[in-house]
Design brief:
single chain, 67% helix, elongated, 13 helices, 233 residues, disordered C terminus, mainly alpha
Length: 233
């Protein structure tokens, strides 16, 4: 798998020729590998599928690859090494799948909601960053997961008070909520209303209440920067 990763990073897709399907199939088959090499399998798979399928979100290889990954993560949701390896590598796969991620929400978000309350800071920060990427790519449309996501983020924001990485966690949460506010409008406001009077969320609510509708490409707000030192990029 290390060799395949090297190939994916150093050749053009056209050079793979007739070996393309065989290589991608091998990546999918190897998702069942042991923990010791799983991170190599994930890295190679993401590099190769994004190299060869490019900006074709309807590619059956994107569909198969993501489903294989999610299946193994669902079977071992508590496996810290697997989830961190996947969260560290999957952003370019998300970018390739794009809007078609909507079809995978029912599998992705239950995992994300669970991992948001993991014992380690690294998992929480990575899953928040991946959540932000997914929202930017899909605008989450009228998904029933919006209200649940707002509730989970509010809870994680409060839980962060006891974590050493509280600043970074809260900065990422603030950026996600601002994105939801800008993209969902009244739908977001309805989901957030139940949290407005929570004294543990007063600073966060002030940040959201003071936001004007701005471009999604603007820099992070000062309010978010005050809540955490490393906002999502």
């Amino acid at each position: 798998m290390i060799s395949l990763t090297h190939v994916g990073k150093n050749v053009d897709a056209a050079e793979l020729g007739g070996y393309l399907d065989v290589i991608l199939d091998a990546c999918c088959q190897n998702m069942a590998s042991d923990d010791e090499i799983w991170h190599h399998v994930v890295e190679a798979s993401v590099v190769l599928v994004t190299l060869t399928q490019g900006s074709n979100p309807r590619s059956p290889w994107y569909e198969r690859m993501l489903n294989e990954m999610l299946s193994h993560l669902e079977r071992q949701p508590r496996n810290k090494e697997r989830r961190i390896s996947w969260l560290n590598s999957v952003d370019s796969l998300f970018n390739g799948v794009g809007l078609m991620l909507l079809a995978h929400f029912r599998r992705i978000f239950p995992l994300f909601f669970r991992w948001m309350h993991a014992d380690d800071n690294e998992t929480i920060i990575l899953v928040l960053k991946c959540t932000y990427i997914i929202l930017r790519l899909t605008w989450i449309r009228n998904s029933p997961f919006v209200a649940r996501l707002v509730d989970e983020l509010a809870l994680v924001h409060k839980e962060a008070a006891w974590r050493t990485a509280r600043e970074e966690i809260r900065a990422n949460i603030c950026q996600i909520l601002i994105l939801l506010q800008e993209s969902k409008g009244q739908y977001f406001n309805a989901a957030w209303d139940k949290h407005r009077t929570d004294p543990n969320l007063s600073t966060l609510d002030l940040s959201l209440s003071g936001r004007s509708n701005t471009s999604l490409d603007t820099v992070p707000s000062d309010d978010c920067s005050q809540q955490g030192s490393v906002p999502v990029q």
